[in-house]
Amino acid sequence: MPAASALAERRFWLVKSEPDAFSWQQQVANGTEPWTGVRNAQAASFLRAMRRGDRAFFYHSNVGKEIVGVVEVAREAYPDPTEAVPEGRAPRWVCTDMRAVGPMPRPVPLSAIKAEPALAEIGLIRQSRLSVMPISPEHWALLCRMGGWEG
DNA sequence: GCCAACGTTGGC
DNA sequence: GCCAACGTTGGC
Length: 151
Hints:
The chain is α+β, with helices and mostly antiparallel strands. Helix content is 29%, strand content 33%. Pfam families: EVE. This is Ubiquinol-cytochrome C reductase. It comes from Teichococcus aestuarii.
């Protein structure tokens, strides 16, 4: 089907990274980068649900605590090469490839997200430890407005 | 540095 | 299968 249908089906996500481990600046420098290291069953199931062309906010956890950019799913889930698979066992974890799309003109801090009543139900707040989560189209649009993102 | 949330592990 | 102990994440 044409692009309109693919666009309508595009889903939105938020992925977290500690900038000390892997930062937005590194993502930009590398262009496309495997999103590895997810070791949580719920987060992994969200990675598996990602489709090529889906977009995600890139959030800096611990240091910064703000949405700093937008990435796009460039390759759907495949076995995470950083997993140490025990002898005779099947690989368990997956990664996706993420491509940097662009920086948020105004990074959106966690404090601003918490201060916005319309975002009270967002996974980032309700389940603070989850590192990969879906974002509803409405929340995506609102966060884009808050960050000055014209996408 | 502390603590809440929560996932995992292991004894029973 | 239950649950205490422990480890990790991530905000404060």
